[in-house]
């Protein structure tokens, strides 16, 4: 996910301070990976340098200056473009799960154990999400159901891959010898 575009979009309804943006980002987009304050301010600095935001107010206080950021018309155009541009479908073409399974097969490690461990972790996360889904609404419901759908697709892949392991190991063994 793009941190820059997400922070920029959070500024569209109204100007905000970096502190406020960090908390809004964490609420809507950082459920599993909250954003560091340093990343917020470095991103805002880059957005300002690129003319997508500007500081509309700087307040001196006891600590560091508080800077109120506001989106520019070019920033709104950038958000329109980002939201309206479809994501490339190859996002999931290279996952660490696929890589770990392939390494297990290439190295003679137990690929069945890799799949079994991942299946258990996926099912645990799905149980957590099912509980969250019962109380979720709005964007949180979208996030939960999105993650559930991807976990479900991963589980199907895990099951299909498990059924093919014997043939895969033989195919990979031959490919390694030929290389």
Automatic annotation (TrEMBL):
**Ranges for domain Transcription regulator PadR N-terminal:** 7-79
Please indicate which superkingdom the organism of origin belongs to: Bacteria
In terms of InterPro entries, this protein maps to: Tscrpt_reg_PadR_N (IPR005149), WH-like_DNA-bd_sf (IPR036388), WH_DNA-bd_sf (IPR036390)
Protein's UniProt name: Helix-turn-helix transcriptional regulator
What species does this protein belong to?
A: Mumia zhuanghuii
State the organism's lineage.
Bacteria, Bacillati, Actinomycetota, Actinomycetes, Propionibacteriales
